[in-house]
Amino acid sequence: MRGRDEETGEYLSPSRSQQRREALGVLELAEKLASLTPSQLAKLPIPEDLLPHLEHTRKITAHIARKRQLAYLAKQMRREDEAALDAIRDALDEDGVAARREVALMHRVEGWRERLLEEGDAALGQLLDEHPHADRQRLRTLVRNTLEERKRNKPPRAFRELFRELKALLGGAAAGEAAGYGADAAASVDDELEFDDVGFEPGQDD
After folding, report:
1. Which DSSP string corresponds to the chain?
2. CB of 180 closer than 8 Å to CB of 157
3. How far is Cα 60 from Cα 71, in angstroms, rounded to an integer?
4. Tell me: the pLDDT tens digits for 118-136?
5. In this predicted structure, what is the pLDDT of residue 96?
6. What does each C-alpha distance from 98 to 44, 94, 110, 128, 179 come to in angstroms?
7. 5 near 12, Cβ under 8 Å?
8. What is the reported pLDDT for 188?
């Protein structure tokens, strides 16, 4: 974000280093968008005029040609309002956080399921200490039925039901947790700025 002159109120021109940081941020966003599937892109608030450039970038696989096209895509993106780019970033962050929460929840559920099956009432007691509203009797029954399934080599119905029960219990408790997203495109920024200066247009494949 540019500062303002305290006397005139006019916006100050960004420094070269600031331009580079801003270009890096937009290039990282361009790379992220180009790696998404059409169904993922459809969920994002991408301006209509960027879609053809984005689609063209996604189709290029040759390294040098793709690098140039990403630079051109980033150049087009910098012409958009900052609010439009922020809206895309916010949507990507929400999706990333949700995915990481889901993975973390799956690991917690699997961990508790194995503990209940291996440690029995000791693990159940600790789980109830952390989640006092859990249904003790139902969990104990599911653990017992799962162990019986294993003993008799039956289909893992109770095993799966125990997973669903724990997911509902732990998922409700973890509804407010959060995480973050990042990427490294520093090696491409100087090239991106260079291509911007010479006015590269798509179609100049190597």
Report:
1. ---B-TTT-PBPPPPHHHHHHHHHHHHHHHHHHHTS-HHHHTTS---GGGHHHHHHHHH--SHHHHHHHHHHHHHHHHTS-HHHHHHHHHHHHHHHHHHHHHHHHHHHHHHHHHHHHHHTHHHHHHHHHH-TTS-HHHHHHHHHHHHHHHHHT---HHHHHHHHHHHHHHHHHTTT---------HHHHHHHHHHHHHT--TT---
2. no
3. 13
4. 999 999 999 999 999 999 9
5. 64
6. 15, 6, 18, 26, 9
7. yes
8. 46
Give the residue-averaged pLDDT of 104-114: 90
Q: Kindly report the pTM of this predicted structure.
A: 0.44
- CA torsion, ordered 67, 27, 15, 91, to nearest 10 deg: 170
As given in the structure block, the two tokens for residue 179 are 């995480």
What is the mean pLDDT of the segment spanning 139-157?
94
Phi and psi at residue 4, to the nearest 5°: -120, 150
**Single-letter residue type at 28:** E
Residue with tokens 């051109």: 72
CA separation for the pair 22, 1 (Å, rounded): 9
| Backbone torsion region of residue 39, taken as left when φ is above 0, otherwise alpha when ψ lies between -120 and 50, otherwise beta | alpha
Please choose, from the candidates 103, 102, 100, the residue with its C-alpha nearest in 3D space to the C-alpha of residue 92: 100
